[in-house]
Amino acid sequence: MTYSVAVSGASGYAGGEILRLLANHPQAEIRTVTAHSSAGQRLGEIQPHLHPLADKVLADTTAENLAGHDVVFLALPHGASAEIAAQLGDDTIVIDAAADHRLESGTDWEKFYGSAHQGTWPYGLPELPGQRSKLAGATRIAVPGCYPTTILLGLAPGFHSKLVEPTDVVIVAATGTSGAGKALKPHLLGSEVMGGMSPYGVGGSHRHTPEIEQGLSWVATEDVQVSFTPTLAPMSRGILATSTARLKPGITEAQLRETYTAQYQNEPFVHLLPEGQWPATKQVIGSNHVTVQLAVDEHAGRVVVVSASDNLTKGTAGGAVQSMNLALGLPETTGLNLLGVAP
Ligand SMILES: NC(=O)C1=CN([C@@H]2O[C@H](COP(=O)(O)OP(=O)(O)OC[C@H]3O[C@@H](n4cnc5c(N)ncnc54)[C@H](OP(=O)(O)O)[C@@H]3O)[C@@H](O)[C@H]2O)C=CC1
Ligand SMILES: CC(=O)N[C@@H](CCC(=O)OP(=O)(O)O)C(=O)O
């Protein structure tokens, strides 16, 4: 059986990556691609790497053009995404890459996004304890942000097993520039980014802070507070997150390793690496995989977890396709059997 699919935002980075994955999905029929300022152009003019789809013409992103599909992917700026989602029928599965429906707290939404909260959808991170069952058969799914995906999968087992303290969590992560989308932004000019690294969203102001706290609070079943600092690295794709949390008294590295192994040993896309091997972005670029490693810093009384992902694949499009598979009742890995492209 095949399912008709529409991808909105098909001229953007996230939409392009969704199409790259769907082009290899045996049960997805890409029927419609839509865009905004690029509507009317051939997809091949904008996304030349998607050559089997080159002759598809980008339609306007309207509810009419997206109606009548089994699945609609939204890869639009937040706000525009919620607006179009509200016009789509309940008979269509809507998978949203934007942030609009990720947060439960309207207060957090308004504080970090400065607009009215549009509601909450099931959270498309099946590996986070408690989430997979909510995605089976869902008709609306909010795909997590790229940092939250990487950081939550790095930290969740320790919080789920209550081996770490819920406060005093410190996270520093580096991302590639594609995380910001393809619109022109002065701080993302090659001359600004190449050959160096810089922080942004410092001091707890990044929009992913409440999303990370939400996911960790769900699995810890108590409020978790984090300090999160993102940095920009001179690469197009990839996230490398270093997260540290204070250990509860007496907790050992062996206990943590046992918990992580139990949580991830049957996950197709999340891998606790063999002891002594550390995540690196090149292991996961182009794939739906996340690599994780941990060490206990006994001097500081903390666990240090490093996790790596491709922000556009597991961090957006791969997570979106994985969510679609669950919503449709297909094997979760369908169309996602890709390995990283190192070196
Ligand atoms: N890049 C990433 O790593 C991640 C992105 N996301 C989210 O995915 C979504 C898309 O991001 P990304 O692909 O990076 O962004 P891009 O800027 O690369 O693409 C944006 C897309 O949205 C279209 N668009 C722009 N404005 C409007 C509008 N007002 N109405 C309808 N369509 C519009 C653009 O069309 P056109 O080009 O024709 O104008 C383009 O297709 C965002 O919500 C982003 O936050 C989530 C996780 C990670
Ligand atoms: C480099 C860069 O700017 N990255 C983006 C990641 C955005 C993302 O993951 O998307 P959402 O906005 O949908 O949450 C950022 O830090 O905002």
Explain the layout of strands and helices.
Blueprint: E1 3-8, H1 13-22, E2 28-35, H2 43-46, E3 59-60, H3 63-66, E4 71-74, H4 80-85, E5 93-96, H5 106-113, H6 132-135, E6 140-142, H7 146-160, E7 164-175, H8 190-193, E8 198-199, H9 208-220, E9 226-232, E10 239-247, H10 253-264, E11 270-272, E12 290-297, E13 302-309, H11 313-328
Parallel strand pairs: 1-2, 1-4, 2-3, 4-5, 5-6, 7-9, 11-12
Antiparallel strand pairs: 7-10, 8-9, 10-13, 12-13
Helix pairs in contact: 1-11, 7-9
NADPH dihydro-nicotinamide-adenine-dinucleotide phosphate binds next to helix 1, helix 4 and helix 11.
- The CATH architecture of the largest domain can be given as 2-Layer Sandwich
Poorly predicted regions: none
Query: Beta-strand level of the residues, as a percent range?
Result: 15-25%
CATH topology label of the largest domain: Dihydrodipicolinate Reductase, domain 2
Distance between the termini: 37 Å
Helix content: 25-40%
How much is the radius of gyration in Å? 19 Å
Q: By helix and strand content, what is the structural category?
A: alpha/beta
- SSE order, as H and E? EHEHEHEHEHHEHEHEHEEHEEEH
Number of domains: 2
Number of helices: 11
| Lateral strand order in the biggest sheet | 8-9-7-10-13-12-11
Which overall shape is indicated by the principal axes computed on the Cα atoms?
A: globular
Organism: Nesterenkonia massiliensis
GO molecular function, one term: N-acetyl-gamma-glutamyl-phosphate reductase activity
Main location: cytoplasm
Protein name: N-acetyl-gamma-glutamyl-phosphate reductase
